[in-house]
Write a structure and sequence with these properties.
HTH_67; SalK
Amino acid sequence: MRATARQAGWQAARQAWRRLEPVHSMIYFVPEGGRRYAELGLHGMAGYFASRGAVFGRASAELVIATFYNFNPALVREALPAAWDVVTPEQILDARRLAAGEALRRAGIHELPGLDETLGLARRAAEAAAQNLHGRPLFAAHATLPWPDEPIDQLWHAQTLLREFRGDGHVAALTGEGVSGLEALVLHGASGDVPAAFLKVSRAWPEEEWDATEERLRERGLLDGETLSAEGKALRQHIEDRTDALALPAYTALGEDGCERLAELARPFGRGVVAAGLLNLGG
């Protein structure tokens, strides 16, 4: 396939993923999640690390540090393995699934037209991804979970699988380029896409470590002051392109036309999540 055709395939698949991604990612912000985790005795980031890491069973802090990639290890170790003295992995997984369904129903996402067709395409992509487990630990663990019964819950599960499949590929791309988790955050903040202050707080990196990492990236020629240099922009684009390519095994099952159709169908679902305020920080 010619480079231009490959690029078109990447773009169609990326668009399909990006437009539906809010259906998954809202679980990190909605109050339903925090409330259900708190009912089990977990609060704050302990609920996040346990609910996402429970697919590994009684996951160690080290396993979560490795697979989640960009969190300050000290923050993870505050939550794990202590969380498993409070809840079982099965309990927190059930709580997460129920919270996701509650939030999506509160926003009326389950009533949007096109749900069945959107789900059909997303599930086909997710099931295709499950034929490509090698090197995808967080995705593979999620792929062992049973499919829920209701269509809106299935859609959330499908997009969760696609998100973790893509995420494992992104970690592989970063690792291959010698970019650590903290360096990836600093480069992301320097791009201007997400405020660096938010990344520092949400990933709990101390100011001195962040500053030292910025200095190392300047020495590598990837930063110009606190913004990306031309070389830094090129590296980020290369990593994003590589991530797109590594995500393709999931979307090849749909073909370019199927990806474009999924992107078209997914638009009102993603916009509905945003319009309902499900992605507001702090719930």
